[in-house]
Each structure stands twice: as structure tokens, then as C-alpha cells.
Design a protein that fits this description.
It is a single chain. This protein is mainly α. It has a domain at about 35-235. Helix content is about 85%, strand content about 0%. The protein is built from 19 helices and no strands. It has helices spanning about 5-30, 35-55, 60-75, 75-105, 105-115, 120-135, 135-155, 160-175, 185-210, 225-255, 260-295, 300-335, 345-360, 360-375, 380-405, 405-430, 440-465, 475-495, 505-510. Helix 2 (about 35-55) runs parallel beside helix 11.
Length: about 525
């Protein structure tokens, strides 16, 4: 499968998941709004996801996939599967013990990650009880991520990319029967746990379908497993540093007025649409392919893979970021302003979204640059950069929040994204497999020009159609639909008019087996 075809597969399924996620968020906003119960649930939702990014998408995956791919290339599938089975057994028992300890210590954990809740018994007690329900999701999803990494290494990208769809469907399902629970927040918490079970089940079924056998024997610390832990060490530090960054945002937000954590959540969900759709697609497809190219010493293929991935991230990320900046208010209003989520909540969330959008292209590109390090089994360099970026983000957030409130947290995150990409690019300078090729140098200025044309048109059209808003749901939806569809059409036209992409090239990208 070609890189772009793999990215399109993962990105398409991720987009479907995000659409389901928007339906879930619209229902959540209408039922929970942005009050104390919503704040408590979002803390309970973020807690297992913070650790999951270390054990699943974070340190484990970026260390495991290159080693598993290397084992398949050099020693065959049986040896690679034996390594994966051993890693899974170790992960399961380690995370089971960790989950039990955290659930017991949850009152202390919530005090540490949301200290502002201590003066609000309702939010604090609810956050503790909800987090004890959601936290086992960490165990289920982490094992599922290992199975997904094995499938990705075999070129089977669909199952792991489709798993998040089950998460959103599970939460939509419990919201439909929320009246049977103590609160809608309790329904959502149980939905998170159910989703973890469903996602694990899906990946396990596909492992069986592909006839991949992962022997579940007594865990042993062999040479390859030792190497996995060696590589994970810096990765855990790096992912841990990034989670400290997110924890810091939540700690700062917990001291702000009620609803601030909810504003961060809703805005981040919209920001995650392009970030996850493109970023996850690039990282998922690029890591095993780049690892094999580097492992076989094929620098030319590695350079082509790197450039095409970076080209796609900017091709999609730049216009998405500019569109979110310009259309933040109508997007938030149309999607969330109903029920318990009022106009004031919508305005505050839109300002947060604009802060996040500033760094959107940078964070997508970080996926490409970080993968270039991980494919070489270098997990330490990104850690050092993560530490610098985290310190900068916390310091900047503490400054900006004094002037902008909760929006300052998001703006700090957006700004330091560009610092991170600058540091990563500087340290990769001179590498033969990550230098810009002629095609990328040709495409970049044309992508920027096309984005600018689209942005100017959207800005003018947004002002012209402003009167449509306030005329009821139909008028608002119609105005936003015109803006989005028009922006997409204009950007596509500019891309083809500037020669950035030709129809024949697009067809070739999706059919060629090599890039």
C-alpha cells in the first residue's frame, strides 16, 4: 500500500470517528453544558487518556512498532509475534497493578490534577467517583493499541483506525439512555469503560482473522524486550512531559471560573478534527514504512516518504487552521449553542479554539518530524525538545491567562507548537533522509498562496453572511454550510490553478504502491 493511500485510509476512518464525535459532543453540550458536572466529567475523561498517550499512542507504540517491523524483516513473523506476545503480557500485568493503585488513590490524584476543585465539594467528589469508573479504560485501550501496532506493521491499518468510532458510538448510546443513570455524567463515564471493552474486542477479532498468533507465556526479559524498555525510557519521559503540560493546563483551568475546563475540552475537540485526522493518519502510516526504509538503508525512499508526508500535513493543515481562526464563532455557535450551552459559553469556547488553531499546522508537522527520529530508534532527542517546549508552554500560559483568561492557555499551546517544530527541524538539518526535495520546494509556496486566497474570501464572506445568524437554526446552518463549502471549493480551485496538484498525480498517488 502506498503512503498516501494508507494515510487516506487512516484519515478517512479518523474523520468518520470525528463526525461521530461531534454528534456525541453536541449531545453532551446540550445535556451537560459547561457547568460543574461537565467539568468533573471532563477531568474523569482526560485522566485515563493522559496515561493512554504514554502507554498506547505514546512511548510504547513509537518504540514497539520499529522493533516489531525490524524483527519481521530480519528474523521472520514467528519471532516478531513472540516478541509482541511477551510485550503484551508484560503490559497487561503492569497496567493492571497501576490501575488498581490509582483507583484506590483517586482522591489524592484529583487533588493533584485539579486542585481548584478542592473549594467546590460538588466538582471534587463527582470527579473522584467518575474517574474511578473511567480509569480502567486505560488498561483495555493500551492492550488494544499493541494489537493495533501489530496490525499496522502488517499493513492492516483499518481496524485500529476504526476503533475510535466504537468509542463515540458507545458514548452516544449511553447518552440516549442517560435518564437511567444518576446523572448524565455517570452515563458517560460508564460509556467510556464500555468503549474500552468494545475497542479491545474489535482489535482482538482482527488479530484472529489475520491468523496472527501472540503467544501468552510467562513474561521474560530477553534482548529485544530489554531494548524495548530502553527505547521506552526516553519515550515515557517525553510523553510524560507532554502530559505534565496538559495537566498544567487543567490545573490552571481549575482555578479559573466554573466552565473553563469545559471550554478547553469543547474547543480542543474541534481542533482535534484536522489534527487527529491528518496527524494520526500520517504518524500511523509513516512510522512502519519509514522504519523499514531506514532499516534497509534506503535513504532515497526514506526522504521521499518524509517529504510526501510533510507535504500532505501542510496541504491539509494550513487551510484547516486558517478556517478555524476565521470561522471559530459561527462554528461553535452552530454546533454547540443549545440546551445548557448558552451564547456566553459559545463565545468563550470560540476564543479558546482560535488560540489552539494558531498552532495546528505545527502540531501536525511535529508528527512527521518526530517519526523521523523514532524510525531510527532515537527516542531521546524528542524528549529533550518536549521538556523545553513544556516549560515554555507553562510559563507562557501563566502569563497570558492574566490578560486573556482561559483563552490564554490555548494561545500559549498554539504558540509553542511552532517552537517545537523549529527545534525538531533544526536538529534534523543535514540528514540525507529528511532534506526537502524539489517537489516539496515547488509545492510549499503554492500551498501558502492557495491558503491565503481561501482565507481572504472566507473573511469577507463571513462578514457578508453575518446577518444570517440570529435568524434561527436553519439560517445559521445554511450560512455556515455556504462558508465551509465555498472555502473548500475555492481552496481546491487554487491548488489546481497554481499547479500544486494535478488530477493525474492525485490518481497516481492513490494507485501506486510506492511513493
Amino acid at each position: 500500500m502506498s503512503l498516501l493511500k494508507a494515510m487516506a485510509t487512516v484519515g478517512g476512518l479518523t474523520a468518520v470517528s470525528r463526525v461521530a464525535g461531534f454528534i456525541r459532543d453536541i449531545m453532551t453540550a446540550a445535556i451537560l453544558g459547561a457547568g460543574p458536572i461537565a467539568d468533573a466529567f471532563f477531568v474523569a475523561l482526560k485522566l485515563p487518556n493522559f496515561f493512554r498517550r504514554i502507554t498506547a499512542e505514546g512511548a510504547f507504540s513509537v518504540s514497539f512498532v520499529p522493533l516489531y517491523s525490524e524483527a519481521m524483516e530480519k528474523e521472520g513473523r514467528e519471532s516478531a509475534d513472540s516478541f509482541a506476545g511477551n510485550a503484551m503480557v508484560m503490559m497487561f500485568w503492569g497496567l493492571l497493578a497501576f490501575t488498581i493503585v490509582i483507583m484506590i488513590a483517586m482522591p489524592v490524584v484529583i487533588m493533584l490534577i485539579a486542585p481548584g476543585f478542592s473549594d467546590d465539594p460538588e466538582r471534587y467528589n463527582l470527579a473522584v467517583s467518575l474517574s474511578r469508573i473511567t480509569f480502567p479504560y486505560l488498561l483495555m485501550m493500551s492492550v488494544a493499541a499493541l494489537l493495533g501496532g501489530v496490525l499496522n506493521a502488517h499493513g492492516r491499518f483499518v481496524p485500529f483506525a476504526a476503533a475510535p468510532i466504537l468509542f463515540n458510538l458507545a458514548l452516544i448510546g449511553v447518552l440516549l439512555v442517560a435518564w437511567k443513570f444518576h446523572t448524565a455524567a455517570h452515563a458517560l463515564a460508564w460509556g467510556v469503560l464500555i468503549a474500552g471493552i468494545l475497542q479491545f474486542g474489535l482489535l482482538y477479532l482482527y488479530i484472529r482473522r489475520e491468523k496472527i498468533t501472540l503467544p501468552l507465556l510467562r513474561p521474560r526479559l530477553d534482548i529485544r524486550t530489554k531494548k524495548l524498555f530502553r527505547l521506552m525510557g526516553p519515550g515515557v519521559m517525553g510523553a510524560g512531559v507532554m502530559q505534565i503540560n496538559l495537566f498544567a493546563d487543567m490545573i490552571i483551568g481549575s482555578f479559573l471560573p466554573v466552565g473553563s475546563i469545559s471550554y478547553l475540552y469543547y474547543a480542543d475537540r474541534l481542533n482535534q478534527l484536522p489534527l487527529s485526522t491528518v496527524g494520526i493518519a500520517v504518524g500511523t502510516a509513516l512510522l512502519p514504512m519509514l522504519s523499514r526504509a531506514v532499516g534497509s538503508g534506503n535513504e532515497a525512499e526514506a526522504r521521499s516518504l518524509f517529504n510526501r508526508a510533510l507535504e500532505v500535513t501542510l496541504f491539509l493543515g494550513l487551510p484547516a487552521a486558517l478556517a478555524l481562526l476565521i470561522l471559530a464563532n459561527p462554528i461553535i455557535s452552530v454546533l454547540f449553542e443549545r440546551g445548557a450551552f448558552d451564547a456566553q459559553d459559545a463565545h468563550a469556547t470560540a476564543r479558546v479554539l482560535q488560540g489552539y488553531a494558531i498552532g495546528l499546522p505545527a502540531y501536525i508537522a511535529v508528527k512527521v518530524y518526530s517519526t523521523a527520529f523514532w524510525s531510527r530508534q532515537d527516542t531521546m532527542t524528542p524528549v529533550k525538545i518536549s521538556i523545553a517546549v513544556t516549560l515554555a508552554n507553562i510559563g507562557l500560559a501563566l502569563i497570558l491567562v492574566q490578560f486573556m483568561g482561559v483563552a490564554g492557555i490555548a494561545l500559549a499551546t498554539g504558540i509553542v507548537g511552532w517552537l517545537q517544530i523549529a527545534l525538531l527541524a533544526r536538529l534534523l538539518r543535514g540528514s540525507p533522509s529528511t532534506g526537502f526535495d524539489e517537489r516539496f520546494r515547488f509545492a510549499l509556496p503554492r500551498i501558502i498562496l492557495s491558503t491565503a486566497i481561501m482565507g481572504a474570501a472566507l473573511y469577507g464572506a463571513n462578514i457578508a453572511l453575518d446577518g444570517w445568524r440570529g435568524m434561527g437554526s436553519f439560517g445559521e446552518i445554511a450560512a455556515l454550510s455556504v462558508l465551509v463549502a465555498g472555502g473548500l471549493a475555492l481552496y481546491a480551485g487554487a491548488i489546481f490553478a497554481t499547479g500544486t496538484l494535478k488530477a493525474s498525480e492525485l490518481k497516481a498517488y492513490l494507485t501506486k504502491r510506492k511513493v
